[in-house]
Fold this sequence. Notes:
- One of its GO terms (molecular function) is dioxygenase activity.
- The protein is of the alpha+beta class.
- About 30% of the residues lie in helices and about 25% in strands.
- Bound molecules: 2-oxoadipic acid and nickel (II) ion.
Amino acid sequence: MHTDRDTLFRHLWDNYCEVTPSAQDIHRLLDDTQGGDIVNDHIALRTFNLEKVNLDKLAAHFLALGYHEGGDYHFDAKKLYAKHYQHPDPTAPKVFISELLVDQCSGSLQSIVESLVSQMDPTAVTRDDFLYSGRHWDVDHATYQTLLEESEYAAWVAAWGYRANHFTVSINHLSRFKTVAEINQALKDNGYRVNSSGGEVKGSPEELLEQSSTMADRADVRFKDQTVAIPSCFYEFARRYAKPDGELYSGFVAASADKIFESTDSRT
Ligand code: OOG
Ligand code: NI
C-alpha cells in the first residue's frame, strides 16, 4: 500500500496525461493566466462490482492513506453505484469511485466482464501501482463494441482498466477564473468541447456545487486484434459553495454526476 499521498497522485496524474493531452494544455492555459498552482478538487476511478475488483478494493488504497468515506450515490439507469472519500487534510483531492452493478446487466455482459476480470492476477488489486496500472486483460475490438451497445461505462473500463478517469480543477482556488461559465467559455475559445448533457453548467449554488467537464480526448487502445482510437479521459472543473456552517460543501450531486459520466461517451 502507498505510504505517500503525493507520490500516488503524481503517478495517477502522469498516467492520466499519457492519454489525455488536453488536460496538460488546459492546465497550462489556467496556469499561464494565474501564475499559481492548480489545486485538484477530486479525481475519479471506475470499476466493476465483481468481488475481485470492486469499489471497496479500490477504496482500500485511499483508506490506507487516511481517507474516510463521505457520501454514496445511486445511478439506477446507468446501473452504477458510487462513494466518495475525503481526507482530514483539506488540500488532499477528494476521490469519487464508482462501480458497475454487473449483476443487473444482461447475461452476455456479465459473462464478458467475468471473463475479462478472471484473466487478472488476484494479487494485482493490492499492489501499490494498481490504481494506475491500466488493463489486466486482453480484449478484442468486437467485444468492446458489444459492451458499448449496452453500457458505455463497461466498455470504457474494459478498454482502459485502472487509471484516473478525470482530474478536477478546484475553481475556488483559481484567481482569474471565478465561475464555471467563464471556464467553459475559455475552453470553447480554445477549441475544446464542453460536455453539454443536461446543460454545460451542472448543479447550482443551491446544491452547493457547480461543475463542468470537457468531452474526453481520444487515444489509441491496443485491442487484441487491432489498435483503435477511442474516448480516453476528460478534465473537470468544480466550484464549491459554503454550507450554513461556513464550511465548503464536500459532497457530490448525483444528478450532476449522472451527466458527467457521459463525458467519455462519444455517441452523445
Ligand atoms: C464520474 C462521474 C461523476 C462527479 O464529479 O460528479 C463525477 C466518472 O465519470 O467516472 O466525476
Ligand atoms: Ni468528477
